[in-house]
């Protein structure tokens, strides 16, 4: 049996890491949508460097999170990235949200709830 009060801070750290990783992915997509005069500028610009810095930080957050929560929690919490990326896609990139995407997101949320209650 898992003591959720002891795991909660680590789960929140994991969720923060997943969120920041999603933000970093958006930054990389924004950078990829721009035109650059050279390959060097494409990879060595502040947006890309900062995004990879965030990825490095999320790795450290993941390591910290796994110190205080069961390994089985990680993949469940990481599925929240699908939700973040969908929201960012709709809000930032004006992507269309269709019924299949909504159904998929509902199934992800239901899976997280079932796991949390189980």
Describe the structure.
The protein is mainly alpha-helical and 118 residues long. The protein has one domain. The protein contains 6 helices and no strands. The protein has helices at 4-32, 39-43, 46-66, 73-78, 80-91, 99-117. It starts with a helix and ends with a helix. This is Multidrug ABC transporter.
Q: How many β-strands, per DSSP?
A: 0
Point out poorly predicted stretches: none
Number of domains: 1
Q: Sketch the topology as an H/E string, one letter per element.
A: HHHHHH
**What value does the Rg take, in angstroms?**
17 Å
**Structural class given helices, strands, pairing?**
mainly alpha
Indicate the overall shape. flat
Overall pLDDT: 92
Q: What is the helical fraction, as a range of percent?
A: over 70%
Strand content: under 5%
What summary fits the major beta sheet? none
Report the span from N to C terminus: 10 Å
How many helix segments? 6
What's a quick, concise take on this entry?
This protein is an all-alpha fold and 118 residues long. It has helices at 4-32, 39-43, 46-66, 73-78, 80-91, 99-117.
Characteristics of this structure?
78% helix, 118 residues, 6 helices, transmembrane helix, Multidrug ABC transporter, EmrE-like, mainly alpha, transmembrane, membrane, single chain
